[in-house]
Amino acid sequence: MASVQTYPTLWVETALDNSTGSEVYTKSGGSNSSGIFGLLWTSLFTACIIVANCLNLAAFCVNKKLRTYNNYFIINLSILDLLSGLVLIISVIHTHIGYYPLNQELCKLESGISQSLLSASNFVVVIICADRHRATYDPLNHFMTRSKRKALFLNSLAWLGAFAFWMMFITAWEFIDNFDNGRHCLSKYFAIPVVSLLGVVVTFYLPFFLISILYFRIFIKIRQTRGGKLVEKKFDVKNNLSIVVPDFPKDATTSSQNDSAINMDVESAGSNQFGQDVPRSTKKAGSNPDKKSNGKRESAAEMRKATRTLLFIVLSFVVAWLPQSIIGLIYSINPLLIVRGLPRPLMLFFTWLATGNSLLNPISYAVSQPLLRSTLKDLLFIDCKNRSSLKKVKV
What we know:
Largest sheet: none
Mean pLDDT: 76
Strand content: under 5%
């Protein structure tokens, strides 16, 4: 048992020594240019995370049109990423000075909170995929049941699940065992490779497995329906059928019978194409079936935007977490492969790349949503507009 714990302790101490840059400090207490560079880029990276998510939250507060059902999940992700960026400030200080700046009690608490925020962000991605999966396969019931309260409930599940697991797995366990976290605020579960694998599975592999299955099914369904465009074409065909009316005799009795026959033909055509009855409201003269249908299901444009946003979020999640998760898997198999085989710059890059998901997420929202981009532009250039308007007034 002693030999099992020797390797993890050696690996964690070596990895954190390499990733904090403590070796750049001289015995006199000074630092060289490498230490200054490390402080600058980690500080800039953390500042970008905080600023980007603050801007997104400000845009959601300013523009009410952004506060849709689908965007409530995006708001939740922005809050989680913002809090992760704020907690990351402690890691920046740790990277610069070469040791954890707070006491061990706060170390235990901060480790649990930090991991909870990161896992909750990944759990939200799973919830978004599950919600989009239902919107794709059961659009009518999904549209009728979605609400602000439902979005808040689903978002709260990610928070409760992540904090319940990690606060018990890290904070409570370390307080009960009175674990010595050391100068680098080491978590106890790192001391046993098999147990550390459980943390990697909960953080990445389990969400990745669920996301892969859900998004693959969404992709297949979208390919089958051609991204919703086929539905619009079917509505157009149904409209054309309702418009083409042959010229019948002017006899009132015959005319009413023919009208009813036409309505039945249109209804049966719609039933054959959609697998369901046409709503009664579409039988009225001058009614628009497309508009009526949009009142009971997601519009094609909204569906495309939500799916596009989800695609960028999933790609950001995989790109950011996959390398670090592979390192965790290899470590659980043989810690020496990581201790002796991974250079310091690579370890540093992969460690910070995992937290980079909090920066990639707000970029993904802006890329996939034109309304959010325009709102952000208005927020960023509002001072310029005000100054130009003041100059015009003065002139």
